[in-house]
Amino acid sequence: MIRKQLAEVEQHIQAACDRSGRRREDVTLIAVSKTKPVEALQEAYDAGVRIFGENKVQELTDKYEVLPKDIQWHMIGHLQTNKVKYIVDKVACIHSVDSLKLAEVIEREAAKKDCKVNILIEVNVAQENSKFGISMKDVLPFVKKVSTFPHICIQGLMTVAPFVENAEENRTIFKNLHNLSVDIMSKNIDNVNASILSMGMTNDYEVAIEEGASMVRVGTGIFGIREYSI
Ligand SMILES: *Cc1c(COP(=O)(O)O)cnc(C)c1O
User: Which of the listed residues 29, 170, 206, 217 should we mutate to test ligand 1's pocket, taking the one with most ligand atoms within 8 A of CB?
Assistant: First the structure.
């Protein structure tokens, strides 16, 4: 089941790359496994998946303990500062850095563990009150500030687009995030290569790829619907 759905997602990714003249290797698929049991992740692993996304610290560390060590774990959900210490040395990337306070705690905990943490800045492009993320206009000053933190590597931007019936409705949001990333790159800030764009989920990853996504976060499309929407 998972193998088959994964193959379908792969086909869609390839098709979106073909349509937009992009190379498949420039788009990373993150299998979002939140709420799914370890057996489901193992099945995806056996089908070749090595990159998983989780949104809860406890769940991520529990799965980290029991699954193979060549998995890259991506933290994609809102992160509380008091939980940073449990994951800084375990994750390949934190996609959801949405405040200076959180960046400061990541810096402090990474320094303690003597590791460097890859982060993406979560941007609330659609200005939805219900969503986490920094406003577009605050991103550049935020990047300038956090780029001076020695244990943090800013790799790009992330957004969670609104849930829409028709994925086309989110195209402008993806375009806006892309433009913002180009703008930041053009400033040539020391230590910043913010070229990664984490955008697109099951409902809209093809449009996101057409608009330049370099990471897509697909859960339902691979693992099926979640029993609990946490
Ligand atoms: C759950 C989640 C996803 C995956 O959502 P699907 O619609 O199941 O693909 C992607 N990104 C974030 C931040 C999520 O929390």
Answer: 217
Let me know: does 93 contact 74? Beta carbons within 8 Å: yes
Q: Which atom of ligand 1 is nearest to the CA of 205?
A: 9
Digit-coded pLDDT (tens) for 175-194: 999 999 999 999 999 989 99
- What separation in Å is there between the alpha carbon of 54 and the centre of ligand 1? 9
Can you tell me the distance from the alpha carbon of 140 to that of 80, in angstroms, rounded to the nearest whole number? Answer: 23
Residues 93-118 have pLDDT tens digits of 999 999 999 999 999 999 999 999 99
State the pLDDT confidence band at 23, using cuts at 50, 70 and 90: very high
CA distance 148 to 137: 20
Residues with CB under 6 A from ligand 1: 32, 34, 55, 76-77, 160, 201-203, 217-221
Reported pTM: 0.97
> 58 phi and psi, to 5 degrees?
-60, -45
Number of other CB atoms surrounding residue 74 within 10 Å: 26
* pLDDT interval class at 130 (50, 70, 90): confident
Distance of CA 178 from the midpoint of ligand 1 (Å): 19
Tokens of 137: 């206009």
Ligand 1 midpoint to CA 211 (Å): 18
- State residue 228's pLDDT score: 67
